[in-house]
Amino acid sequence: MSGPLRYTSESECVKGFTEAYENANRTPHTDAIIHTDLNKEDAFRKITGLLKKDIPDIVMTTSETIANGVIEGLHILGYSTQNIPVVTLGEEHWNKYTRSFANFSTARPAMKLGAKAANLLVEKLQSPQLQESDQIILNSNGTHDASMILSALKTSPLAQPSVTTVGKKNSIRILMLDTPLVHSFHGLLRNFETQTGIRVDITILQHHRLYDAIVESSLSDKEENRYDVYMYDIPWLGMLANQGILADISSFMHTIDVSKFLPGSLEYFSKFQDKYFGLPFMYAPQILYYRKDLFDNPALRNQFEKQFGSQLRPPVSLREYNAMAEFFTSKTSAIPYGVSIPAAYDECLAPELYMRLRSYGSEIIDSNGNVVFDNPKTLKAYINFMQILRFAKPDYLNANDVSIVDSFLSGETAMLISYPSFLTDINDLRKSSMIGSIGYSHIPGNSPLLGGWSLGVAERSTNKDSAMAFIRWTCNEQMDNYFALLGGQSAITRTYTNDELVKFYPWLPLYRSVYSYTKPMLPPIIRNGQVMSPNAIDAIICKWAYQLINGNAAIEEVIPSTQKELERFMNQ
Fold it and tell me: What is the pTM of this model?
């Protein structure tokens, strides 16, 4: 594991590594060389990702910083440096008492190298005609030389970690959302398995398939088709609890410190009719991301102000957002499109509509259960939505929440409104943010939807104690720190006040501040206590919205038609 190849010190280590294989007439494994950002956080991410699919015999690192991240990852997953020795080629000790945590280390004396290079440079400048080009090799004065490392490794026991054999009662099945953060979280599961002896089997599905899979699992008479833990979108909570799909976990709540969660978050993530049915797992408010380099460009700023009479800045209103999308799409050649809009299926399209309805003050169904969709505020929201489509990347009918992030990070769009959980590579965003390319701000219109996911126990699970042990483990604050290092956003408050994490992910304070005014789209509860299906409401609204998008109906027809169909649904 090395740093970026653009650093000579790192590329030389990689060169030596590959030459050693060549000299032995062997070819390195495809994952034998892993590049990091030369920090312990990225090394931690890389080793946990590697251990999901492969267990190396030895890990060699080019710096002690990388070694520390690797060792942290090994220990949290139940391995040790006795199981998997760690060698560092660059121990960063500054006196004879400092020792590396790695099994074996050798120092590259950076201060001596720098001093010698400076002396050579001065001599060359003073007598450019007389000095020959020299290559000087300094011996390391580290704790071990190469021969000592080789000898020690030959005699070191490379014991593989023990694998706990568990029975059927000591295993649980979990149904989760297909998102980059869940895939990252998957790398931490060995920690739970090692601690508890409970094996975890995870099935991952896309958003538009997950709800139906939860319902089908709850109805199945075959035990092999049922799950013990469900990951559910917070608008689904009422339906899943009301239909007896989620188990009431109120009796377990005395074992949970609820004060560590974001204030009031359990009302959205966990509670239904004064009972608890789950615990928060992933907090995801809508956020605006934008190309800071474009917004700070003096020529573009002057051009925008001349054409639109206002400043080029992170948009505050939806009207400004549309104007900036128009500017970047058709008024400048700096970037192909202003925005991307996800409309591949209902779960993508509905938030785009609801965000605008809320911003313009419209409602779908009021607190008395009356459909109030057909109103002038809905008309404004739909007009705004149809305007943005004119200046969006034209693949919106095939675009989903992940693909619009890809379009943004690949440089095709200037702005992005999305939930953090769909960022395909949080580390790419971090690097871009640190060098000033990507900014982040509150969304235009100041009405972000609260996206979020919880973990609940299946009512028909025969292993509820183990299922609850898993959910409690996900809420452990130490595990939350590791999850955050992998790019996750939990609903635990300390994530957003941790100085180390904020330094590494500078947008965390924004995610925290958005919480005070973001809310989810929750389905109504009618007078008999029945919860309306959020998916059914989404389907009706999106059905008519697609008619509008495809040019099969005008806004003046779509809004009253949506109103009538919602009324029929409510009457049923």
Answer: 0.80
